[in-house]
Write a structure and sequence with these properties.
Layout: E1 10-14, H1 18-26, E2 41-46, H2 48-61, E3 67-71, H3 88-93, E4 96-100, E5 103-109, E6 114-119, E7 122-127, E8 133-139, E9 142-150, E10 152-156, H4 164-167, E11 179-185, E12 196-199, E13 204-208, E14 216-220, E15 223-225, E16 228-235, E17 241-245, H5 251-258
Parallel strand pairs: 1-2, 2-3, 3-17
Antiparallel strand pairs: 4-17, 5-6, 5-16, 7-10, 7-14, 8-9, 8-13, 10-11, 11-12, 13-16, 14-15
Length: about 260
């Protein structure tokens, strides 16, 4: 299947890393770059962390455009290969598009304040002290686990399922699965519970038990809150982000490949 876009105005952003800064100098004359707020698409130089940072910047600004990443970081799971030999505009216009739908998190801290964040990869609840976290897990209004003793628990999207979720022994989710991974982090009790795969229309509520004795923090991608009382999560269907990938190097292929790496 052939793909063809018609992006006319491109922006260029880069992380502060040495490799990304060298790349932005190398690409300075490759295009007539425009500011991000005027662009049809953005070229992102860096690693996965900087790609997430750029996507969140667009979410916060209210203006979301497709993003084409080139890996000048470490892992680069969300990025394409770095290449200055090919015509960049033609390369981008031939890319495949992948839609990413973020998680919407409403968190309540112990002082009763409410906070709303979005997460593209995952939302993680993590114990703050040496005390094991104690969490009640509710899905779609029904308590599924009354007391989960653990170091933490996370909810991952398909795009984030190969990140922290995978390192916590969670499942890899195909991009078209329309599922979420609910994965415990070092669970102590129930000992045999290894998590769940849920439809992405699920409403997940995580309530911290004994929050004073067992304080818990929550991290939504790169934003952290401490002393959490309760977290409510669901997919935010009103917002979609678009990642661009070279043909044959799309994110769905990377997720399949990841499952065969020993």
């Amino acid at each position: 299947m052939s793909f063809r876009h018609d992006f006319q105005r491109l922006a260029l952003v880069a992380s502060q890393g040495e490799r990304a800064q060298r790349a932005i100098d190398e690409l300075a004359d490759a295009e007539d770059w425009v500011p991000l707020e005027e662009a049809d698409a953005v070229v992102v130089l860096g690693g996965d962390g900087f790609m997430l940072h750029t996507l969140h910047q667009m979410l916060d600004s209210g203006r979301v455009i497709p993003a084409f990443g080139m890996n000048r970081g470490t892992v680069g799971f969300l990025m394409n290969r770095y290449d200055t030999a090919s015509e960049l505009r033609d390369r981008i216009n031939q890319c495949r598009s992948f839609s990413v739908v973020p998680l919407l998190m409403n968190a309540t801290t112990q002082d009763g304040k409410q906070h709303t964040f979005r997460a593209i990869n995952e939302v993680s609840l993590l114990r703050e002290t040496r005390q094991t976290a104690k969490i009640e897990v509710t899905v779609n209004g029904k308590v599924r686990i009354e007391e989960l003793f653990c170091d933490g628990i996370l909810v991952a999207t398909p795009a984030g399922s190969t990140a922290y979720n995978l390192s916590a022994n969670g499942p890899i989710l195909p991009l078209d699965s329309k599922m979420l991974a609910l994965t415990p982090i070092s669970p102590f009790r129930p000992r045999r519970w290894r998590g769940a795969i849920l439809p992405d229309f699920s409403r997940i509520e995580l309530r911290v038990l004994e929050p004073t004795k067992r304080p818990v923090a929550v991290v939504a991608d790169q934003k952290e809150l401490r002393d959490i009382a309760q977290v409510e999560l669901q997919i935010d269907p009103g917002i979609g982000l678009t990642l661009l990938f070279d043909p044959g190097h799309s994110l769905d292929e990377r997720i399949v490949t990841e499952q065969f790496i020993a």
